[in-house]
Amino acid sequence: MAPRVLVDATAVPSDRGGVGRYVDGLITSLDRAGGDLVVVCQRSDAERFARLAPGAEVVAGPSAISHRPARLAWEQTGLPLVAQQTEADVIHSPYYTMPLHAPVPVVVTVHDVTFFSEPEVHSAVRAGFYRSATRTAVRRAARVIVPSQATRDELIRVLEADPERIDVARHGVDLATFHPPSDVETRRVSDRLGLHGRPYVAFLGVLDRRKNVPDLVRGWVQAVDGMDEPPALVLAGSSGWDDAVDQAIAEVPQHLKVVRPGFLRPADLPGLLGGALVSAFPSKAEGFGLPVLEAMACGAAVLTARRLSLPEVGGDAVEYTEPDAESIAASLRRLILDEDRRAALSRSGPLRAREFTWEASAAAHRASYDRAVSGVVGVPG
């Protein structure tokens, strides 16, 4: 008999972002597979999760947990109580933190280990908090789920984590949302960005140093130098924790165009990514690299860095670069000027993306829940 799983979705941010897409995709697929599922969430998300998982029991947490300190306090006391009330067999905490005194086994998702390996790309407060949370998860959780083999290897290397308690569950991609765009979708996004058909290089994600956005900006400036009609640069997403991106943009020559639209609607993302000359994501450190997968699904010619998990995701369907500005410039220029290579990547990306499904991810999560409940140590061969 399958265990009754309580998924704590209270940490999902309002902008959905990568964490939101992970939790949404996972919960939807767990429910479709007929799992015995309880979802506890922010009050503002209750209706959404009821639609995504009509077979699940959805519990709205108290309104106070919309504030992060209150949510973390509630996680220690309120979440175990919800587990008791709903008769859950296992708790899944999908974003690093966990209740320390739970009535049932706890499974924790650790998305990456960059708070240890690349502390300089995070704020000191954020890095300290997540280092502590990760250490706690490694020490106290029944199972730890990671989204890639690279993250598993890093967790073992950095924290000497027990490899037999770590399960790899790769993310999936929602092909209904992320797909090669129609001409209408591409034109609509281009017009909304004020580009009106002008070619552009796209980035989608948090605009910060961890995603290597400052070096992408500087690399793009070098890449398009001397071109008669230089493509614009579109930086879509929320701002990061420091002003490094603003400093890089301030250095951009006036004849070049940078567009910062902030968050875009999910319906606009295929047009943004698939309509770009190149979708660039030269991140220095990723636990998985969901933007790369989503851009491939949209038929984009993707440029990314050969770092940590990114080659696991991109395979041979993307172009790689070193993450420094000069290497980004050389690789980006070659790709902009090579129409045949871009077309080949546009064809191979969607094929590669189909290998990553939320159904497979949900199955890997269910196996981890089973191991947690049964007390099994190790991953069956």
Give structural notes.
The protein is α/β, with parallel strands linked by helices and 381 residues long. The protein folds into two domains: 5-172 and 357-374, Rossmann fold; 183-353, Glycogen Phosphorylase B (Rossmann fold). It contains 15 helices and 13 strands. The protein has helices at residues 17-32, 46-52, 68-85, 114-117, 124-140, 149-159, 183-192, 213-223, 244-250, 269-274, 290-297, 310-314, 325-337, 339-353, 358-374, and strands at residues 5-8, 37-41, 57-60, 90-93, 106-109, 143-146, 166-168, 200-204, 232-236, 258-262, 278-281, 302-305, 319-321. Helix 6 links the parallel strand 6 (143-146) and strand 7 (166-168). The two termini are 22 Å apart. The model has no long low-confidence stretch (mean pLDDT 94).
- Given as residue ranges, the uncertain stretches (5+ residues, pLDDT < 50) are none
Enumerate the strands of the largest sheet in spatial order, edge to edge or round the barrel: 3-2-1-4-5-6-7
CATH-defined architecture of the largest domain: 3-Layer(aba) Sandwich
The SS-based structural class is: alpha/beta
The named CATH superfamily of the largest domain: Glycogen Phosphorylase B
Count of helical regions: 15
Helicity range? 40-55%
How many domains would you count in the coordinates? 2
Mean pLDDT across every amino acid position: 94
Q: Can you tell me the overall shape?
A: globular
CATH fold name of the largest domain, please?
Rossmann fold
CATH class type of the largest domain:
Alpha Beta
